[in-house]
Amino acid sequence: MAAPTDPVPRTDLSGLVKAYDVRGLVPDQWDESTAELFGAAFVQVTGARTLVTGHDMRATSPGLARAFARGAVAQGADVTETGLCSTDQLYYASGALGLPGAMFTASHNPARYNGIKMCRAGAAPVGQDSGLAEIRALLERWTDTGGPAPAPGGSGTVTGHDTLREYANHLRTLVDLTAIRPLKVVVDAGNGMGGHTVPAVFAGLPLDVVPMYFELDGSFPNHEANPLDPKNIVDLQARVLAEGADLGLAFDGDADRCFVVDERGEPVSPSAVTALVATRELARRPGATVLHNLITSRAVAEVIREAGGTPVRTRVGHSFIKAEMARTGAVFGGEHSAHYYFADFWNADTGMLAALHVLAALGGQDGTLSALTRRFERYAASGEVNSTVGDAAGRLAAVREAWSGRPGVTLDETDGLTVNGPDRWFNLRPSNTEPLLRLNAEARDERTMARLRDDVLALVRA
């Protein structure tokens, strides 16, 4: 670590530090020297005496993780390196070991990106309102005054601890799959960390697993590791049909999100997965609170109430939801982006645990997945429609003005703009990372939804 008087290269932190994490192009926006500063700042802001790190399969991830550790060690902290892991495996380590943590990944972003997802002990989030702003402020100060001084008590140490087996064993204690009927499941890891974790978690279960793209390759040679984009699950859909499989699962690059395809090769909405898992969690804990973000289907809140639970609507984003999980004592939370949060997993998100719930629900009865999830798919949805705009605030204001005062319509600005009508509703919100407006529209039938979607897009793209 540089001495306090040494110059520190200026980094454009405005494009690097996001609302929930750090993410940008390597080396254009950040590099190992920046990662080292992040390590020092993380220790100073969190007061960590010991911390845990992990990284995904991207070519730049090991070096960035090591640099972060150097910065932390120079501040007197001890670092436990878990090495290759999924993001939820890092959360497991943070929770089980009771340590703050840092995961090096850019999730579903293209190969040249990388980032850091940080948490306090017990997988508690570090976002803009919970430490990330302070970390950024320290880095900005160091670009003017020089790097931080080494810890007066001397450097910390670095040790290794592979948590893969412990993580897999823990997940299997949370969902009982021993009595399910045999299932054939196609899994598309997208050359991401699902290829590392799925074999360990699924080992010994009554599953015939057909692997796709399990080779760890951060260049993503087959398709982007972003199953939210329909083009990236086409291979999985075709393979499910070709294999006559019971279902398909697709994981994103850091394997913290899981997407589901039924036996017909049709995507199962993450809102439907949220509703399905919610019913299972409420069966174990009657009357509990379940969170859902404001772009999930209206069906989610309906199902939670029907199952005897209390639905609580939240903003989009993992740091907000994790904080709300802790505040409300919620048993479970789901986002339409396929992030699923569990009280039994330190309120953190784990797509793998959601996948185990889907497998248990399907394997515990004789019907198909499409039949099982039909009661959760009640409305016609647009999916997320993104529009690149030069003036997001202006376009959002135009939509607000167009819908304000309409009979039977209410407006909510909790996160972007949510417009609710008796038979149609939508949310329009700016991206936290890109010059985009994101539209999610839903209605009681396909025709009404299409008309609503097109009406809003005409205003957004005017």
Automatic annotation (TrEMBL):
The keyword 4Fe-4S does not apply. Its cofactor is Mg(2+). Residues 384-458 form the Alpha-D-phosphohexomutase C-terminal domain. It comes from the Bacteria. Keywords: Isomerase, Magnesium, Metal-binding, Phosphoprotein. The keyword Magnesium applies. Residues 17-141, 166-265, 273-379 form the Alpha-D-phosphohexomutase alpha/beta/alpha domain. CDD domains: PMM_PGM. It holds the Pfam family PGM_PMM_II. PANTHER family: PHOSPHOMANNOMUTASE (PTHR43771). Belongs to the phosphohexose mutase family. This is Phosphomannomutase/phosphoglucomutase. The lineage of its organism: Bacteria, Bacillati, Actinomycetota, Actinomycetes, Kitasatosporales.
